[in-house]
Amino acid sequence: MRSIHFISGLPRSGSTLLAALLRQNPRFHAHMSSPLAGMVDAMLGEMSDRNELSTFITNEQRRRVLRGLFDGYYGQEMTASVIFDTSRTWCAKLPVLSGLFPDYRIIACVRHVSWIVDSLERAVQKNTLRPSFMVNFDTRGTIYNRVEGFATGEGILGYSYNALKDAFFGEHAPHLMLLQYETLVRDPAMAMAAVYDFVGEPAFNHDFDNVHFDVGAFDDRTGMPGLHAVAAKVQARGRETVLPPDIFRRFENDAFWRHAPSNIRGVRVV
What we know:
The protein has about 270 residues and is an alpha/beta fold. It has one domain: P-loop containing nucleotide triphosphate hydrolases (Rossmann fold), CATH 3.40.50.300. The chain has helices at about 15-20, 35-45, 60-75, 95-100, 115-125, 145-150, 160-170, 180-185, 190-200, 215-220, 245-250; strands at about 5-10, 30, 80-85, 105-110, 175-180, 270. The protein has a 6-stranded parallel sheet with strand order 2-3-1-4-5-6, sandwiched between helices. Helix 2 (about 35-45) runs antiparallel to helix 3 (about 60-75). The longest helix has 16 residues, at about 60-75. The chain starts with a strand and ends with a strand. One of its GO terms (molecular function) is transferase activity. Pfam families: Sulfotransfer_3 (PF13469).
């Protein structure tokens, strides 16, 4: 019987790199975001009381339907014995996942928030001739407008940040591990050893100098060429920020996971 775990967390924080590394293990399947989280949301809605026939649906039937989505999506042709499904939404779904897969683990990728905002803005500026879904294809905004959009509760950063806090402080936090981007790129061997230990799988000798992951066609279709590009060699790369100083400072203290007294659930932070 195959195991299923989840990759979630903040955008631009290493989830694609983590998936690319996990894929080196022939026993594992990992990829960029899948549609399963959206499918779970849709089915939960259809089986709720807004459907007048929901009176005929038991919670056990709901569980079977939702688990069936995973079985159907990955299918018998999926030969991997361990699946890592990726979505930033999963951090908001720990209670649901706990009812479906009692032994699951969720690895949330995190990063200094100022550098996430920098990376988002850098991606937009890199593709100035192709308005981005990340800013709702708005061509009129300034960097300040864009950052406000990123950070709202429904924004690409704000939603995932709130979902991360939901998971971090919630009762199902024992299923959660936070993997810092800074750790992953500076000491990938230690980071991956922690991941394997957390999910209870035997160690694997990863090649951190030859990482391959190509979803260029997907990125081109969304108007963000290179958005999920992964460098062949895992290493930390310094750079200057593209953000104005006031924007960079705005997010400097938002890495709550670095404040040990706040970690009331004892979440593992690597």
